[in-house]
Amino acid sequence: MPSPLETDERKGLPAISVATSDKIKSIETFRVPPRWLFVKVETEKGIIGWGEATLEGHSEAVEGAFEDFRERFTGWEAANIEDIYQPAYRHRFYRGGEVLMSALAGLDIALWDIKGKTLGVPVWQLLGGKVRDRVAVYGWIGGDRPSDVLRQAKDRKDQGFTAVKMNAVESLGWLASPDDPKATVERIKDVRSIGIDVGLDFHGRLHKTMAKQLARMLEPYQPLFIEEPLLPGHVDELSKLYQETTIPIALGERLYTRQMVRPYLEAGYIDVIQPDTSHSVGISETRRIATLAETYDVGVAPHCPLGPISFAASLQIALSSPNFGICDYDLSSYVKDNEVLKVTNGFVEALSGPGLGIEIDEDLVRKAAAETKCFS
Known about the structure:
- It is a single chain.
- The protein is an alpha/beta fold.
- The chain has 2 domains: 106 residues, Enolase-like, domain 1 (2-Layer Sandwich), CATH 3.30.390; 228 residues, Enolase-like C-terminal domain (TIM Barrel, Alpha-Beta Barrel), CATH 3.20.20.120.
- It is built from 11 helices and 13 strands.
- The strands form 2 sheets. Strands 4, 5, 6, 7, 8, 9, 10, 11, 12 and 13 form a 10-stranded mixed beta sheet that branches.
């Protein structure tokens, strides 16, 4: 029998019995507002799984990758997630980059959803079971350019959040005015004044000189973390910043695989890894990243400013990963019962339904997709 690493031309491992066999019948994608790309996989027995392959600004390219997936994986055993994952990942990663990673993420999430529904259990049960009964979450405030964050923080608090994340700054030059970082400090003081925790996303907009200055100014206000204080690739530069601040340093939304994450973990200069489940090859690879991070005593906080499917997938990892800390969350739509994703005192309760634990409103998805030609 050929290994799944030797060929990607088979229709799944032949070990599945006729009684349990259930092959992939169809793979569909739906582009829905505000910027999400949903994936629906249906098996020959009528089991439906939903995934999310959102890659901001590149929906058309990701949809193109699914043309190949349909041709390749239709007829494969839906239960053999790893058998599907390995050839797609190993043979095409270096040719497809982030577009392929997001496409495969959508397919992978949908297959886990199918597997859970087939067995009648939540995905977290398949990942080893729960290590917690609820998941800490934070909500986003402010736009791409920080502005009226206090009002938005109050709104998030009313929605049940006890923590938020916001952009730290606009793009700054190598030597910006000292007043620019001061504005960031004033914003975090405003938000902390209403008794809510704050994470700051630098988005790699600061160069190391200004990042060092701002981190020092933020010390008295102890944000939850500073995210992407420098762009990925600056491992040595990050080490110097790490040694100069007590604020936890987080990054990872632009790192899609264990191989990409590994240098940062080995260098020992981050406290929290933030893989994005819809970018980092779905539940399969994101869980591997979380497990690898645990080896280095690094926490995991899934990055998820996306749709409800990506969030539900992130929850499965959060519920089953000992080193989980907190998860990105934007209030969901396209879900029939939003109560299962309700935020109470900063937490979302464990999803108990089979698969991802949410029920997507397919009629609404199809209607929205039919009216959506492109994203602005």
